[in-house]
Every structure is written in C-alpha cells, then in structure tokens.
TrEMBL record:
Keyword S-adenosyl-L-methionine: yes
Source superkingdom: Eukaryota
InterPro entries found in the cross-reference section: COMT-like, COMT_C, SAM-dependent_MTases_sf, WH-like_DNA-bd_sf, WH_DNA-bd_sf
Species of origin: Lineolata rhizophorae
PANTHER family, A to Z: O-METHYLTRANSFERASE ASQN-RELATED, PUTATIVE (AFU_ORTHOLOGUE AFUA_4G14580)-RELATED
Domain O-methyltransferase C-terminal: 222-403
PROSITE patterns (alphabetical): SAM_OMT_II
Sorted UniProt keywords: Methyltransferase, S-adenosyl-L-methionine, Transferase
Gene Ontology MF term list: O-methyltransferase activity
This protein's name: O-methyltransferase-domain-containing protein
Entry annotated with the keyword Transferase: yes
Pfam family, one: Methyltransf_2
Gene Ontology annotations of biological process type: methylation
Length: 432
C-alpha cells in the first residue's frame, strides 16, 4: 500500500478520478441521481455499502489534494481565518432565515432579502458573498439570488435549521473557550458538567440545565430537533434498523426508548415492526415533540412517558432498553448511574432483558475512513467541551459496563456501513 505521505498531486488527482468514476457508476447501478449543486439534488447519499465506501475514499483523496495544493502555511492561515467566518456566516443565514427569504423555485434580489430578513442590504451582500463561495446560494445572471443544493436542503428541512442553531449558538462559544478552560484547570478538562467550557459561557450552568430551563423549553425542543435531524451520519435511522435484529424480539416485546426525545426513532421502528410496543421516555419539555414525531396510527403502540433516566426505571422487565446517543453525554460516574437504574429493572439470564446502545465506539487512528475518523474525533471533543464527557473505545465501553455491574456483558457490536458509531447489544448474566 502506498503511504499517503508519498502521494503527489498527480497521484491524488488520478485517485480522485478513479474513485469518482466508481461512485458515479455505483449510483447509476442502484438508480440514485448523480450529485450536483442544483437545488433539486437529493440531500442524502444512499445507505449503500459500495457507494459509501467509494464516497469515503473520494472525500479522503480530495482532502489530501486540498492540503497539498494549499501548502502548509496557507493551510494554517486560511483555516484559522476562514473557518470562523464560515461558521459565523452559517449562523447569520440561519438566525435570520435566509433559507425562506429566497423562494425555493424562484429568485430574490438583495433588496428583497434585506426586507425579508430585517438586515441592511450591505450586510446581506457581505454574508451571501462568502456563503456563495462555498456553493451555499448562488447569484444568477440577473444579479438575483437563487438556491443551491445546500440552501435548498436547509429550506426543506426545519430540523437541519435546529441542528445549526444548537451547534453554533449553544456549543460553539464553548469551543472558543476550551483552550482557556484547559489552562485554568491545569491542563485537564473538568469532570463536572456545570464547569465545562460551554457552562462557562452559560453563567456556570450545565448545558442540559440551561436547555431545560430556558423560557418555555424552546431551547430543549431545538436540541431535540437537532438530534432528530441527523439522517446521514451515526444518527441515521437506517443504522438503528440495520444494527440490531428488532424483528427477532417476537410479537408483544416491549422496547423502552430511554431519553428518546419526541420518539422519532421508536416511531420508525414501530412502523417497520408491527408486533413491537414502545415506551418513549424523556423530560416534560420535549413531550410536545411526540405529537409531531409519532403518527396517530402508531400511538397505541408508541407511548410517551415523562421520566428522568437518573431516577428509578418504572418499566420493569422490558425486552429491550434502548440508549441511543445517551451515555456519551455523561462522564463515567453519571453514565454508570444511568446503567445501574436499568440493571435494577432488567430480567437477567437467557431470554432476559437487553440493553441496546447506539453510540460512538472510537476506532484507532487510521483504522476507519478519514471522514468518519474526523466525525468521531469531533464528537469526542464536543462531549469534552460541552458536557465534560467523552466518546469511548470498545475497551472503555466494556470497562464502563463492568463498573456498572459485573454481570453486564457486551454480547455483540455492529458497525453499519457509513456509520460513525456502532450498535452494541448488552445482556445481564445470571448471578453465579
């Protein structure tokens, strides 16, 4: 295998051409439209193993080519300068709803966008000039603004708007603070969520406390929508379906979706498996999301239950307790507390209760495609910055289970294609 360190510009260009051809041919074979910047292009690549593999290779080679073509000094200078303004621009586009200021099937002048957003036209022009350099909106020959694939996706998907709002307004200020946070804590991150870098930007309050307490709960609802928006990463609903044999649970089995937000995951699973019953548990502030996420025809099998997962588990002896992107939000001591509440409610032994955990399982450097490694690394840093938590390797997951209860055993681990996370099946063995 040729080392990435020895690849030349021409080598990488040839690799990009070959990988692009493979991806294009695979998309043609499975009948998926070819990618473009046009506003009607699909927002998500298909969950096809061969297409995803070609896509990961193509992105990796493109990133390497960008690095070589940019050069070390400009890579550093440009990244430090451009990245903060790219982030700021997306925040402005989202906060002032540029997405709907431009009709999805028409165009708008700068003056019209200024009137619809309430911003002065000079600011509108400055923001759009930078965003258009990244193919977010475009300027037509008449000087009017039209949608591109990215801006159209934002317009059509309100949940993506919540994703941007949560990350850029709730979390990003803490990212800027993280270096000072580490300096003040002797080079270590705090283990108290109320003392995280994000908490320091929120007046010394833990992120989840702020999300829950803000006004009428709008901030927690935005967070819930942000989590629901993830349809093409480790949060993908198709990965939940593919990572565990839900159909094998049998008719009448009960799945408790612990911290399940509004229930979009349970609703999807219930639609695919008519014999299963679901209980979605979360805090009162997200109960309103249940009405939007769960269709009326599924509500006899998908119920919402107000519950704090640090409290005693009311659903005892369930077939499965689902923890989807829950434990990575908490330091080890609190993750153990969540698991112990479940252990107290589980049926042990063969045919007993199981815990299904969908979360990141950190891979070793260079063992997964570079784009997925970047996503995993960013998720790990996000947990440290926002919540004083972290992502875990397989060994760390097994140690966490052991600390919670020595009878908890990792029975299986599945990494669905194109997924930055994994689905783990955990059983509670009989006492010996």
């Amino acid at each position: 295998m040729v080392s990435r360190d020895t690849l030349s510009l021409v080598d990488l260009a040839a690799r990009i051409a070959a990988d692009a051809k493979k991806l294009q041919q695979r998309l043609e074979t499975i009948g998926h439209p070819q990618p473009s910047f046009a506003p009607d292009t699909p927002a998500i690549y298909p969950d096809d193993a061969e297409a995803q593999a070609a896509r990961m290779k193509l992105i990796t080679a493109a990133l390497d080519l960008y690095g070589l073509a940019t050069g070390p000094r400009d890579f550093i200078v440009w990244d430090a300068f451009l990245s903060k303004h790219d982030t700021m621009t997306f925040d402005v586009l989202n906060e002032f709803n540029f997405w709907h200021a431009v009709p999805i099937d028409n165009s708008a002048s700068y003056a019209e966008i200024a009137q619809r957003t309430g911003l002065e036209e000079a600011v509108v022009r400055a923001v759009l000039r930078l965003s258009m350099s990244r193919r977010v909106f475009a300027e037509g020959q008449d000087g009017h603004i039209v949608h591109t694939a990215v801006s159209a996706a934002m317009t059509r998907d309100r949940l993506l708007q919540s994703w941007i709002g949560h990350h850029l307004q709730d979390v990003a200020p803490g990212c800027v603070q993280f270096a000072r946070h580490l300096r003040a804590n002797g080079g270590r991150s705090s283990t108290d969520p109320a003392k995280s870098a994000v908490a320091e930007t929120l007046g010394g309050r833990a992120l989840f406390d702020v999300l829950e307490a803000e006004g009428d709960g709008w901030r927690m609802r935005r967070f819930a929508e942000a989590m629901a928006s993830m349809k093409s990463s480790s949060h993908d609903l198709e990965h939940v379906h593919a990572g565990f044999d839900w159909g094998g649970l049998g008719k009448g089995a009960t799945v408790v979706d612990v911290g399940g937000s509004g229930g979009h995951v349970s609703a999807s699973l219930a639609a695919a498996h008519p014999g299963l019953r679901f209980v979605v548990q979360d805090l009162p502030s997200v109960e309103a999301e249940y009405a939007a996420a769960v269709p009326e025809e599924l509500r006899d099998r998908v119920k919402f239950q107000v519950h704090d997962f640090f409290a005693e588990q009311p659903e005892r002896g369930a077939t499965v307790y689902l923890l989807r992107h829950i434990l990575h939000d908490w330091p080890d001591s609190q993750a153990v507390a969540v698991l112990r509440r479940l252990v107290a409610a589980m049926r042990p032994g063969e045919g007993g209760s199981r815990i299904v955990i969908m979360d990141v399982v950190m891979a070793g450097h260079g063992t997964v495609p570079l784009p997925l490694e970047r996503v995993q690394s960013c998720m790990d840093l996000q947990m440290r910055v926002a919540l004083c938590a972290h992502e875990r390797t397989r060994a760390q997951w097994e140690e966490l289970l052991k600390e919670s209860d020595s009878r908890l055993k990792l029975k299986g681990l599945v990494v669905p294609p194109g997924c930055a996370g994994a689905v783990m099946e955990v059983v509670l063995e009989d006492e010996r």
